[in-house]
Design goal:
With 512 residues, the chain is mostly helical. The chain is 82% helix and 0% strand.
Length: 512
């Protein structure tokens, strides 16, 4: 796909609005699953571990869906992937309201709906990068702030819907809300189409001016044309009839010879046709296999892992996401272990969501306006602050201490999402950034699958969350160190590539 100059504004702000809608709906529903989880426990009468597999499956399908999403973008477009994903995921949520067993919920909500949701993250982020360059950080901040807003709003709305309509009615309402993804997809106009419309409007303005000028000028050259008469038509018909009659006479004379030749060559032609048909079938199968291989290859650019700076950023994605999701998921349970009421404990994730909403807009503006602070400093610094706060939170066992921790965690995590695409833009070539974003989200998905049950296992063994949150804090700190090392590694990679280029240059000695 050709690299088109982004407008850095204009219609791009509507694209950022579409990204906001996507992140409001999709992560907002994912983070409000905890409210539905309690209802599913009562509805199906299964164990907590069995019911929790709905959420585990939800995050697990991202491992398959995210690479496929990248391939679909390359094959089709951001808009088509978004529209199809929005419709199919709404159908999945709608169908979930009619299930009668936990196994059906696994398949319909845990696999089908989540698979369609995971198709949407990569195009929602990648399309913003095509419309912005200088203001990319601001646009990303606006777009991904929808996660915090959705987490805050849908957590409360889901509980209100359950109290009034039950969990089945709530899923019906959520399926309708989910259709707003299609509205966001309609805003994802391809950048090439944007420039084409802009040039066409400009050309129409120029053509209108030129037409008004040319209409006042006399014609420079005229050609005379004679009208077609009836005699001309009849003469043409007579000539055609004579030619046709002559062709039929020649065909009658050669027909017997053709029949004899056909009888003698009929068997050989059948064998040739069968051989040609087999050859065409094999060629079509090979063509389909090649097209499928190229289609799947479009979702992966494994050569990125040869870049040490990219590998370090992927490590930061794994560590920070593992730590943040574990802290968020088990935060309510830890609050209850500290004898904080269930209502106040449940408010902690919602307040964190609001902190993320405001923080992502703030950090996006800071990253776009401030030229002195490099994005990698904001990116790594936020992880360091989250790590220190996680360790300190072990010693603050009252509601106020936990509230401050969740606010700091929300603001720190808010800095990561709008910043990492800008970091990739600075470290990698433009045509490889979309693939890098795909691998980043994939690393976040895998880390979430592993970290949440691991922290729960540590709590069961130790009887409290103290050691688990020490591990969470260290994960943040290790991720911050990797982030600060990424620019150093990038300079090393650039220097090594230059030395290789110089080493391959051949000098031919002159003959004197």
């Amino acid at each position: 796909m050709a690299d088109v100059e982004p407008p850095d504004g204009g219609f791009g702000w509507f694209v950022a609005l579409g990204t906001f809608i996507v992140f409001f709906v999709v992560p907002g529903q994912a983070y409000s699953f905890g409210v539905l989880y309690v209802e599913f426990l009562d509805a199906f009468g299964a164990s907590k571990a069995s019911t929790a597999w709905i959420g585990t499956l939800y995050f697990s399908t991202g491992v398959v869906a995210i690479p496929l999403s990248m391939a679909l973008i390359n094959k089709y477009s951001h808009r088509k992937v978004m529209m199809i994903g929005g419709i199919t995921s709404s159908i999945g949520i709608f169908a979930s309201s009619f299930v009668s067993s936990l196994g059906q919920m696994y398949i319909i909500y845990g696999v089908m709906t989540s698979f369609c949701h995971w198709l949407l993250s990569v195009p929602a982020l990648a399309i913003v990068r095509r419309y912005f360059r200088k203001r990319l950080s601001i646009a990303m901040g606006i777009g991904v702030s929808g996660t915090g807003a959705g987490q805050f709003a849908l957590s409360f709305l889901t509980q209100i819907f359950i109290d009034n309509y039950g969990w089945r009615g709530t899923l019906l309402i959520l399926s309708a809300i989910n259709l707003n993804i299609c509205v966001a997809g309609a805003l994802f106009r391809p950048i090439e189409v944007y420039h084409f419309i802009k040039q066409r409007n400009c050309q129409n303005t120029i053509d209108a001016t030129m037409c008004s000028i040319s209409s006042t000028q006399p014609s420079l050259k005229t050609t005379e044309t004679r009208p077609v008469t009836v005699s001309d038509v009849s003469l043409e018909n007579n000539i055609y009839s004579d030619c046709k009659r002559h062709e039929l006479e020649e065909a009658d004379e050669s027909e017997s010879l053709v029949i004899q030749n056909d009888l003698s060559e009929h068997g050989e032609e059948i064998r040739d046709d069968v051989a040609a048909s087999d050859h065409n079938i094999r060629r079509r199968i090979q063509s389909c296999a090649t097209e499928l291989r190229n289609f799947l290859k479009g979702g992966f650019d494994w050569s990125l892992f040869k870049n040490l700076a990219f590998v370090l950023i992927i490590v930061t994605a794994f560590g920070s996401q593992a730590a943040s999701m574990a802290a968020l998921t088990h935060g309510v349970k830890r609050g209850r272990d500290y004898d904080i009421s269930s209502l106040l404990s449940s408010s902690l994730p919602a307040i964190m969501g609001m902190a993320q909403f405001l923080g992502r807009i703030f950090w996006g503006i800071v990253g776009g306006v401030s030229k002195k602070v490099k994005p990698i400093i904001l990116y790594g610094g936020s992880m360091a602050v989250a790590g220190i706060a996680s360790i300190i939170s072990i010693h603050t066992t009252d509601y106020t201490g936990q509230l401050v921790y969740f606010i700091i965690l929300g603001i720190s995590m808010a800095c990561i999402t709008p910043t990492y695409p800008v970091v990739f833009t600075e470290l990698l070539e433009s045509d490889r950034v979309d693939h890098a974003i795909m691998f980043y989200i994939l690393a976040q998905t895998v880390s979430t699958m592993l970290s949440v049950p691991f922290v729960g296992w540590m709590r069961d063994i130790n009887g409290d969350y103290d050691i688990a949150y020490y591990v969470i804090g260290m994960l943040f700190i290790v991720a911050a160190i990797c982030a600060f090392l990424a620019p150093v590694a990038n300079k090393y990679v650039v220097k090594r590539n230059e030395e290789k280029r110089k080493g391959t240059t051949c000098f031919v000695p002159s003959r004197e």
